[in-house]
Amino acid sequence: MAITDWPAQERPREKLIAQGATALSDAELLAIFLRVGVAGKSAVDLARDLLSQFKSLNGIFSASQSQMQQVYGMGLSKFCQLQAVLEMTKRALNETLHQTDSFQAPRQVKDYLQLNLSSQTREVFGVMFLDTQNRLIAYEHLFEGTLMQTSVYPREVVKRALVHNAAAVIFSHNHPTGVAQPSQSDKQITQVLKEALALMDIKVLDHIIVAGQHTYSFSEQGIL
User: Which of 18, 56, 121, 154 could, after both became Cys, cross-link 196 (CB 3.0–4.6 A)?
Assistant: First the structure.
């Protein structure tokens, strides 16, 4: 059945107007983006196919062009539109964090890091460099590979912090395995970096692990 044949209150667009975007499911939000379905399937059906194939919204945004085009009804145009939406979301959050105390906006920080890290297939270590009011100056991916003292260099982290004249930092890295729990190496290197930056009077506000839709905050867990 076409969406236009649904009761008005059940149609995604009308539901959004009446109740707001937060009232919609992931499939309904995707359906509004897709606008139309394919032969025999509504836009909501197509959205459900995408969620089934890629498991989550993060999975959809992380899909490559070839992976996306394997789903019937998803061509190059739709892939480009999805990538544009993802990039606009990143830039909007970036603008917010440039103007907001990151320590007072933990949800926005996590969202920003998820958008930047959840699509990575290898472990990536990144740093948010902050000013004296904890506003974002810059975010950089500094290292790739397993997070161990041999692969993360405190000297380089300190060097980049000084280049940006940062007063504080937030560390981040991803776990491609999908498990958002710190290893002993994660804890050890965090402490090593914290001590190195303390010599320059630079604070470490948090270390956030991103694993798909899940995050782990050292600060929230009281282990920083």
Answer: 154
